[in-house]
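Protocol step 4 of 5: obtain the predicted structure for the target chain.
Materials: sequence only (see below). No template structures provided, no constraints applied. The aim of this step is simply to have a reference model before the mutagenesis design in step 5. Sequence pasted as it appears in the construct record:
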Amino acid sequence: MGLGFPTGISGLDLTGRAYAQAQKFGARILIAKGATKLACAQQPYEVQLAERLSVRGRAVIIATGAEYRRPALANLSQFEGAGVYYTAMPMEAQLCVGEEVIVVGGGNSAGQAAVFLAQTATRVHMLVRGDGLADAMSRYLIRRIEDNPAIVLRTHTQIVALEGDGHLERVQWRDDRTGDVQTHAIRHVFMMTGAVPNTGWLERCVVLDDKGFIKTGPELSQDDLTAAGWPLARPPYLLETSRPGVFAVGDVRGGNIKRVASAVGEGSIAVALVHQVLQQ
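Step 4 output (structure tokens):
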């Protein structure tokens, strides 16, 4: 038996055709509020659920996703997907060709987004709360930002209000050094402040990276496997964690690119690998 728990930003969705197909092939689908613990000391593994229920299986697919860090703005959800975005990909870039945009964040993801968006936007305002970019961004990206006249770095600055009717139309930001608040007619904001993986319920059953995402396959070093007590002669499969038969897919996995198509593809691969595990 294999267990999968799909939630999160771009997790796997068991609705519609997918739900019907799963039933057709004999899958047992349990609707629950969520997993609270993975008991992994022995097999079969046991997943404990919120309703004091538990299920066991020789294989587990973890797809519990991640949650974006969101600033404390009262109407933020109103503009998500309508002017506020959490990724900067070609689809989002096409929405703001020839316009000014805001990138919030000072890490590498924010820097990459700013450089990418500067190719099509008239101006990119980078808003960071700190003194600059050196603490969290690679020097290579900093140089590219400094050399690009379309990118304006605004330190000690944060968004305090979003305004619009149906779609974002105006943004207010505050200079924390002076307290000055300005309103700008900017229709696109990219929140590149990172994401928090939903891995707290795993209770150290599998190896995580320094940001709390699950390590899988080639990302697991020999030291990781030794510390976790990896019992097999073979190395972990591509999406397999430090526990044999436990796989991670989607946003909860370290190295995932945070797109729906990627999560679905990883889920399909993990199912094929589960079949291999169950035949061993």
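Step 4 remarks: The helical segments are 16-24, 76-79, 90-95, 108-117, 139-146, 222-228, 260-279. Confidence is low (pLDDT under 50) at residues 1-14.
Proceed to step 5.
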